[in-house]
Amino acid sequence: MKIKILGSGCRKCNKLENNVKKTLKNNDISAEIEHVTDITEIVDYGIMSTPALVIDEKVVSAGKILKEKEIIDLLQR
User: Fold this and answer.
1) How far lies 9's CA from each of 5, 12, 18, in Å?
2) Is residue 69 a part of any domain in this protein?
3) Residue 11, domain member (yes or no)
4) Domain count, the chain
5) SS3 3
6) How many CA atoms lie within 13 A of 48 on its CB side?
7) Which residues are catalytic?
8) How far apart are CA 57 and CA 38, in angstroms?
9) pTM of the full predicted structure?
10) Residue 73, domain member (yes or no)
11) What CATH number is attached to the domain comprising 35?
């Protein structure tokens, strides 16, 4: 599984990244995580607000900081 956090590196983007890492660790889930800060690459995903979460190249959330339960729900889809 490949997970991308899309965002400029702002506080909200970093918080989402930390929440994702914590969720993966707490639930013993293995995944590759990448924080994408390049605006051109972010725009290519078609999102209008950050932070955004991409799982296996599919945008599953944009514009909010997800909590552990929300992240788990998205990972199980």
Assistant:
1) 10, 8, 12
2) no
3) yes
4) 1
5) strand
6) 0
7) 10, 13
8) 16
9) 0.94
10) no
11) 3.40.30.10
Domain coverage including residue 51: 2-64
| Amino acid residing at 76 | Q
Q: Tell me which amino acid residue 3 is.
A: I
Q: What is the pLDDT of residue 56?
A: 97
Q: What is the DSSP secondary-structure string of 13-75?
A: HHHHHHHHHHHHHHTT---EEEEE--HHHHHHTT-SSS-EEEETTEEEEESS---HHHHHHHH
d(CA 76, CA 9) in angstroms, rounded, equals 26
Query: Residue 17: inside a domain, yes or no?
Result: yes
Q: Would you say 5 and 20 are in contact if contact means Cβ atoms under 8 Å apart? A: yes
Contact indicator for 38, 6 with CB cutoff of 8 Å: no
Tens place of pLDDT per residue across the chain (77 aa): 999 999 998 999 999 999 999 999 999 999 999 999 999 999 999 998 999 999 999 999 999 999 999 999 999 88
User: Tokens 């400029």 correspond to what residue?
Assistant: 8
